[in-house]
Amino acid sequence: MSVPPAPPPPPPPLPPLREVIARHGLSASKALGQNFLFDAQLLGRIAAIPGPLDGKAVLEIGPGPGGLTRALLAAGARVTAIEMDRRCLPALDELAQAHPGRLRVVEGDAMRIDHDAQMGEPYAVVANLPYNVGTALLVRWLGAAAWPPRWRSLTLMFQQEVAQRIVARPDNAAYGRLAVLAQWRSTARLAMKVHRSAFTPPPKVMSAIVHLEPAAMPEGVSPRVLERVTEAAFGQRRKMLRQSLKGLPGAIEALDAIGIDPRRRAETLAVEEFVALARVLS
Ligand SMILES: C[S@@+](CC[C@H](N)C(=O)[O-])C[C@H]1O[C@@H](n2cnc3c(N)ncnc32)[C@H](O)[C@@H]1O
């Protein structure tokens, strides 16, 4: 009778993150928007937001010293991580060695990298990024030409005020172009608030994580027309639509055709009403 081979020994435990940071001299760089998370429990809760990740492909942007990366790997994900700070690469390399075949690190600026080409399969995105980079990437992901896009979900940390703009509903001061862009063919929810004290160093403002998933794309709507309509409407958000949309040929007639009162203001229109307006103009 043959004896089954013994399972491989578990990898040695990883050193605490703070120790890794000290050993590799990873002082947080302000220019790179570095605010690190160390709390393993919090990181585990963040990694759970996209749902079960066992065996799934995950794109992490900005792993830094690898706190969130550790939590994603612990959840069983196969991680591709894009980091532009070369100083973090040795620490990430140690993490890759502890999880053979499950962490690939790409050095570079995530704004300049073709994510779909890197991944080559559907993937979930998870990121704790500087505010300006996060918003620019969000707009890029939401504006994908092909729909549904290759990404299956986005789990992204933002300043709380930006997170509120993404998930805002009409009749709210936070409601604007970002909300329409995020909600016309995706679902967007505020998944978790994160206190500023959770970060090292703590940023000035509170943060929150938004989770988005692609939804069905409304038929007969050109994304570019929708963009033009929201730009005009929210460009003068205090004005009535008959004034703010005056420069958009056919827009006033379109309001009439779908029964939207031209005396209303942009922030009172539901996302579906913007979609209907864009459909008539598309
Ligand atoms: C807020 S820190 C978060 C680090 C780590 N994920 C954590 O949660 O502790 C942001 C990380 O994004 C990286 N980063 C900033 N801009 C980037 C870009 N354009 N492309 C790739 N990484 C970027 C920074 O170097 C930094 O490591």
UniProtKB/TrEMBL annotation:
Q: Which InterPro entries match?
A: KsgA/Erm (IPR001737), rRNA_Ade_diMease-like_C (IPR023165), rRNA_Ade_Mease_Trfase_CS (IPR020596), rRNA_Ade_methylase_Trfase_N (IPR020598), rRNA_adenine_dimethylase (IPR011530), SAM-dependent_MTases_sf (IPR029063)
Q: What Gene3D superfamilies does the annotation carry?
A: Ribosomal RNA adenine dimethylase-like, domain 2, Vaccinia Virus protein VP39
Q: Does the keyword Plastid apply?
A: no
Top-rank lineage group of the source organism? Bacteria
The UniProt GO MF terms for this protein read: 16S rRNA (adenine(1518)-N(6)/adenine(1519)-N(6))-dimethyltransferase activity
Location in the cell: Cytoplasm
Membrane-traversing stretches:
none
Q: Which CDD domains match?
A: AdoMet_MTases
Q: Where is the Ribosomal RNA adenine methylase transferase N-terminal domain?
A: 42-216
Q: What keywords is this UniProt entry annotated with?
A: Cytoplasm, Methyltransferase, RNA-binding, rRNA processing, S-adenosyl-L-methionine, Transferase
Reaction it catalyzes: adenosine(1518)/adenosine(1519) in 16S rRNA + 4 S-adenosyl-L-methionine = N(6)-dimethyladenosine(1518)/N(6)-dimethyladenosine(1519) in 16S rRNA + 4 S-adenosyl-L-homocysteine + 4 H(+)
Q: Which SMART domains match?
A: rADc
Binding positions for S-adenosyl-L-methionine? N35, L37, G62, E83, D109, N128
EC assignment: 2.1.1.182
Main localization (coarse): cytoplasm
The record's annotation in Pfam families points to: RrnaAD
Q: Does the keyword Repeat apply?
A: no
Family affiliation: Belongs to the class I-like SAM-binding methyltransferase superfamily. rRNA adenine N(6)-methyltransferase family. RsmA subfamily.
Role, per record: Specifically dimethylates two adjacent adenosines (A1518 and A1519) in the loop of a conserved hairpin near the 3'-end of 16S rRNA in the 30S particle. May play a critical role in biogenesis of 30S subunits.
For this entry, the protein name equals Ribosomal RNA small subunit methyltransferase A
Q: Which organism is it from?
A: Pelagerythrobacter marinus
